[in-house]
Design goal:
Number of strands of chain A: 0
Radius of gyration of chain A: 16 Å
Low-confidence stretches of chain A: none
Distance between the termini of chain A: 55 Å
Helix content of chain A: over 70%
Strand content of chain A: under 5%
Largest interface: A-B, 18 and 18 residues
Protein name (chains A, B): UPF0358 protein AMD01_02360
Structural class of chain A: mainly alpha
Oligomer: homodimer
Family (chains A, B): Belongs to the UPF0358 family.
Shape of chain A: elongated
Pfam family, one (chains A, B): DUF1507
Order of helices and strands of chain A: HHH
Chain lengths: 93, 93
């Protein structure tokens, strides 16, 4: 009963959000590889801005009915864990 | 040929984005009615954050194929014009 094209919007929303989370991780890794300190206020600001942007996209996708609220929460939680692991690895260097 | 439910996602995306733009305008009007000065850095920050959030939603909707890029641009332009009219009206008070 579910038209193909609807499934496509849902799948695309999930794929885009996962890709955006991955992009944030990559950005932070690049900053660390280039030795931009996590204590730097600019680092915090970039990260906050990116996380806010992603959370707005997630919220929008939930309101559109394209993703479950829980998927969004899990994505943000996982990203935060990965970021804090990166942060920890960096400060221990 | 276009399934109802797809049209619904598109319509919903447009409606949500229009509503979010309207919410920003309302927020700014409330700030002005309560005499929070537009020169206040907090005002600028709130506005910047809200505009960034909306532009991320718009970008996401474009990438999902739910809205045309031009619709997003028009929405942001119109909002910016309305905001600057509000701002002008306020500073002339």
């Amino acid at each position: 009963m579910t038209p193909e094209i609807v499934v496509d919007h849902r799948e695309k929303a999930h794929a885009l959000l996962n890709a955006d989370a991955e992009k944030i991780l990559r950005l932070i890794r690049v900053q660390m590889d280039n030795l931009t300190m996590p204590q730097c206020p600019l680092y915090e600001e970039v990260l906050d801005t990116q996380m806010f942007g992603l959370s707005r996209e997630i919220d929008f996708a939930v309101r559109l009915g394209l993703i479950e609220e829980q998927f969004g929460k899990n994505l943000l939680n996982r990203l935060e864990k990965e970021l804090s692991a990166l942060h920890e690895a960096f400060t221990k260097k």
